[in-house]
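Memo to structure team: turn this sequence into structure tokens by end of day. - J.P.
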Amino acid sequence: MPTTVHPLFKTALPAGWRLLTVDDIKAPEKSSCVAGPFGSNISSKYFVDSGVPIIRGNNLRDDLTRFVPKGFAFVSEEQATKYKAQHVQGGDLVFTCWGTIGQVGLIPKDGPYPEYIISNKQLKLRPNKEVADSVYLFFYFACPQMVEHVLGKAIGAAVPGINLGILKQLPVVLPPLPFQHRIASILSTYDELIENSQRRIKILEEMARSLYREWFVHFRFPGHDKVKMVPSLLGPIPQGWEVKKLAGLTAFLSRGISPNYDDEGDSIVVNQKCIRDQRLSFEPARRQTKPIPADKCVRFGDVLINSTGVGTLGRVAQVYEVMEQYTVDSHITIVRRNSDTDVDFFGCALLLKQKTFERLGNGADGIESYGNRGN
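Reply from structure team:
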């Protein structure tokens, strides 16, 4: 019997494992693998305040996040009946087919809604439960190697995409179903551990920011009742404190480089997708070959601000690790503190300015920040 070879890793599959396609594993029922409605049929003119939610690009990620259950648009239940083929429910998978391809989501079985409708920029897959485990499939399609494979199938120049025919022909490596369940269970356990750790980190981050606001915005620091308040350009501040422009606290403030992308490059470029929820993720970062000026190598304590881009403009994150041979592209501004400015104070000050940066729309110059002497 000929040996089946893994399509991505070019290695032989274990005995009992199968190489199928998406079309092979879809549920036998009608409309189990379909494209979203035609654009004009589900445009914003049909949106209402509440009803059946529409899944759009902001509800999917390309970072192993299964689903983002917020920011929905809605159509009425009556209008929703016109999209019956595009309804999805718990256990279904949704793929972005135009724009940010590589995104995949798994519809949760525990809400917040019993069903959803995919938009015109998405594809639906309802797997055959007798053949494939939905959670296993999510991790399979969300792994970096599979995302890269999907990107390689993209059509279109200005706006890359995949169509239903491409999705149906994507390779799917399936171990026996009990083994799929086991893989899904193990990976889900790690997912839960990661989520718990991230929740704890978020709580600690919010505590730090709340403390910053209490002390340096509302001036309710220990012993504040014994400190005289004096006038300033921004209103009363504690005596001995001063108001400075951001430029007065920085040693370096500049956009990044225009990279020469190359998978064999010896340096890594952080892009706009890497900054989300005031954190850095290096999954979307890419390698490049252009020499990096020393000042534009990212350093511990640097604050990175998305300076261009619809939907990502103004996002802020601080670097809290030592990063060798990392830089940012020209859509991100590096803001580096003076040596006499405390790294944590500096980070908190700029993270709390994110909404201000979003409103400005023209970079970070001129933003004012509180700072007491010596910090």
